[in-house]
Amino acid sequence: MRPAQNGTMSTLKNKKRNIEEKEDEQLPIFDKDQSKDAHLDDNDEDEADLSDSEESVFSGLEESGSDSDDEEEEEEEEEEEEDGAVGKSTGVEEKKKVSGDGDVQLCDKDVSKPQANGQHSKEKKKKKPIKSAVQDGGKESVVSDRDSGLMISSQVDEYEHDTSDEEDIRNTVGNIPMEWYKDYPHIGYDLNGKKIFKPIRNKDELDEFLDKMENPDYWRTVQDKMTGSDIRLSDEQVDLVHRLQEGKFGDVSFNEYEPAIDFFSNEVMIHPVTNRPQDKRSFIPSLIEKEKVGKLVHAIKMGWIKPRRPKETTPVYYDLWAKEDPNSILGRHKMHVPAPKMRLPGHEESYNPPPEYLLSEEERLAWEQQDPEDRKLSFLPQKFACLRAVPAYSRFIHERFERCLDLYLCPRQRKMRVNVNPEDLIPKLPKPKDLQPFPTTQSLVYRGHSSLVRSISVSPSGQWLVSGSDDCTVRFWEVSTARCLKTVEVAGAVKGVAWNPNPTVCLVAVSYDDTVLLVNPGLGDQLLCNATDQLISSYEEPEEVNDQHVQWTVSEGEGHEQGHRLTLKHPKAVRQVTWHVKGDYLACVMPDNSSNLQVVIHQVSKRRTQNPFRKNKGMVQCVSFHPVRPYFFVATQRYVRVYNLIKQELTKKLMTNCKWISSMAIHPGGDNVICGSYDCRLAWFDLDLSTKPYKVLRHHKKALRGVAYHRHYPLFASGSDDGSVIVCHGMVYNDLLQNPLIVPVKVLKGHTITHDLGVLDVTFHPTQPWVFSSGADGTVRLFT
Amino acid sequence: MGGLQKKKYESGSATNYITRNKARKKLSLSLADFRRLCILKGIYPHEPKHKKKVNKGSTAPRTFYLLKDIRFLLHEPIVGKFREYKIFVRKLRKAYGKAEWSGVQRLKENKPGYKLDHIIKERYPTFIDALRDVDDALSMCFLFSTFARTGKCHVQTIQLCRRLTVEWMNYIIYSRSLRKVFLSIKGIYYQAEVLGQTITWIAPYQFAHDHPTDVDYRVMATFTELYTTLFGFVNFRLYQTLNLVYPPKLDGQGEMNLKSESDEDYALDSESYTEKLSALSASLARMVPLVEEEETALDHFPAEGEDLEKMETREKAELELDNQKKLFEGLKFFLNREVPRESLAFLLRCFGGQVSWDKSLCIGSTYDVTDETITHHIVDRPNIDKQYINRYYIQPQWVYDSVNAKIVLPVEEYFLGVTLPPHLSPFVHETEGDYVPPEKLKLMALQRGEKPNTEEEEEEEEEEDDDDEDDDDEEAEEEEAEEEANLAKMEQKRSQGKSLPVKVTPGKVKSENRMRVAEEEKAEEKRLAIMMMKKKEKYLYDKIMFGKKRNIREANKLAAKRKAHDEASKVDKKKKKTKS
């Protein structure tokens, strides 16, 4: 039934629809809706009112459509009026007809307002944006009204202003170029699939022209392509076109410069911005959240998450030492070594130091060339005229950092600082003045030798002095006058001379090369000399001849005249000769590291020689007889061995702690020994005390060459390569409990150093506190 | 026969020491943490007597710690905290990596921290111990408080250091315990006497630091951590002893003064309060309202002889100290803007002076330049435009020198544009034989109360100096003459020796100088006695004598340099005079 009606109406409607379609082009989004709407509108045509509320019940979505339909209804109703036919509904929605009736009436009223079709559509066009906005909002707002049909009266109002341009479109070809229908008589299809025919146009060029010329509205006439009809634009529409062309807003009343109102401001509004009811999902507990909470709860239970710690309320600083409990101090604190404080600055660190503290040019250069560790000052003293000019110190942070490093990296130690007065360190010794007599000045010089004087010896009477030199002579001097009384020439450099200590014998032993010569100098008492000669000549050859190492020969002829009495030929070079106190025995040293024949002892009266040692115990340096007891001292390089000659055994071995012994002397008391060594030491042994030195004296700067004891006075002397003779007071007490007193009393200088040799031998005068020294300069000097 | 063979290095010194690496492993700490622990606990290495024995025969250079020390460290709760922190860092990194921001937040809230209180208490069981060791803490805090707020360390640390140093300075001002001060090229040294302890610290000049690259700031930061804790406790205790409020508050009056002036100028209240404190211009609030201070007079005990003397000297020293404390009392100073404000304000207030500065320079100025009652205006520029009649315009060195001299020095030498006298170190105590700069001698004379008049006196002095020099010269000449005579004699002798042709000349009575002979004898005696010294003593003696000789040599060198300098300057002066 419906399509038939539609068919009758179609041509009329088409006209209007063309306009609406044009507008629809502007709103393609709604196309779908509109097509739906169109469908619905068909219902509306028949039963416009009923459909409205009825359909809104079913879905909110369609509601929006129906909402817009309301406007369309206007026109349709107009059309219906024009048609003069009122279609009947399909009967589906007839139940609600009662409410619908009122609606229809109202609609009629509405329609009664005569309005030009074009104008109407224009109005719609204008209000379109607003309407669409309302539509959007309406969707929600309408929800609450869904079921009530009581809203009709308000709907009436709505219709009055409703200017929706959602027209029902009879042409269903859609949004296509209309040229496609150029050649056809129809222009599209209506909803029922019937052709919509083009309006009859028989205008040719001429008509067109005439129209152009005659019709004053020609310029505002536009052809609607969808329907092919001409439309005359109203004034408003023209105005709109102009405005759009100028790029202005379409709405005249729209003020684009309205003051901006901050919608989302800080002010809390009492009403919500939207009245949208909450979603369903907002009432249903979230599963995801539940899962998350569950995880957290588990983590808390397991102790993986700890609750936030409460803020500490105790003050940062408080009286830490309020209770100083001595018991709480750790034991280790006693061992604590506090760090030493920083050194305080001196004048040189001042920004304006006195001028003398500034470094001179050379000092500054030297400072710069030094390693930073070696520098005495870690900075260069500088002077600034005023405080304003002082710059920042560039090494400030460095210095603090170094201090930090010192504090935690440096080992600390308590160091006992010796705060002694150096004077206190000097031992308190008796004054040399109180220890007199001792030799103090050089009084005589015995000149004559042309080379080193190796050895000297004084006659027991103290009147004569014998000296042996490298110039192959032995000279005899008168002590008191320094006159050379006799010169004996020998065949080699004289290594040692020794005057027989027996005062009844006038005999001197001289060693050179491998020979020991016994010389009678013929000085002094004539009787004594003759007696000596007799003693030597009274020797009788024993019956059995022993095989001896040494050959004894009696000098004769020229040699005898010179004083030679006996010549002892040794197998090796003899270095030292020494007499026993009695004057009968004579010991000779032949240093040799490889044999046991190093020391021989001769008995002059019997012209006998014996080798006391069977074994070699090291190179013998010198030997000496004990003055009282039958002991024999043998000094090897480092030890002094004391042998008992009667028992034929070793009694003592003295450790000298020296590297190389050079000389040795025995105290006349026999209990003390001094050893000089090439390493500048003089060791004093007290045989009663120990085998180690009682005292080691390092007085000389160079090697010691000779040492000697005085026979009566408590004096001993040492001569050294540094050219000095040091005389010491060496008092030995009879009381065994008292240790010897050793005091250096005098340093005697006189010898000049030649070939790095100074004093070669020293010896004391037998009775006077005088000391003789022989030197490398070829002189013998007497100090008194 | 019996017994097992003893193994080497299982007893004795080898077991008493432990190398650093082993110690680290024993504590299961990283090297950095071990270092931190050592710094905090004050553990330092030990040098074993027998390095080879301890090192199990090897001579490689190693650092040794006492095993006891390391065992002691094992019980330290802080070790656990270190580990906790390490774990925290790991967790945090993980959370960041996973972008779990809530986790990061939670972790940060529960950041493990540690306190050093117990370590301080353990290392310094008594307050005096702590005070004795506060030197380094002070220097370090003063350095850190001058650091820029960016970069090298946490801003909180810098702020804390600044706060603590300000507190300390306020305490020193209040207790008037500053004694000496020294402007060196490195910074300003201060020496204070707090509760009988002499405390010296150095503050750098106020310049931006040129941060060196070869300095490990972590070490410094660890030290600072320890020092700030120690220093805070010390400050608290010190404030408590004086009945002052801690943290310090300005007393009512001062606060009022400050408030009225400059609240608008400074942005934040929290900051401006510390700024006000650091202005050092107002006194502090007390816990107990100020009671008229009674000078606790020394009790007099009947004493005899030496005790009496001691008492007298002590009283004298006390009096001197009192006078020094009131050195600048009644004087009113104004600081020009180019002088180091903080140092001078600190100093002047320490000795009772009133001090102010330009309002735009710093908060807390109390009076204006125009104040008529200002007595001294401290300026460090060649001249100043507007000068007021009734005040002295002096250079800052005057203040420092006066403090060190313990008297208000005459201002003439310190006027504007005048060449300043040398600034001497107050820390040098010359013993006999040391070189004493002439300025110091002059100062000592001033202290004794001898007043040299300025110009004339100077000239006179010069003349005197000349005289002295002349005297010296004369002496020298005499000596020379003597020497010459001696030489002549010698020559004569020689010639006598040479001229062998025997001639009998009338004998001269040798005028022997008895004194000299006696001296020579003594010297000889000494020489001989020195020969008899034991080896050890000889060594020591030689060392001492060497040091003494070196000192003498240096003193002589300085004196000679000074003499040369003086002469040169005198010549210059004369030249100028003749020119003019």
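qc> The longest helix of chain A spans residues 117-145.
qc> done
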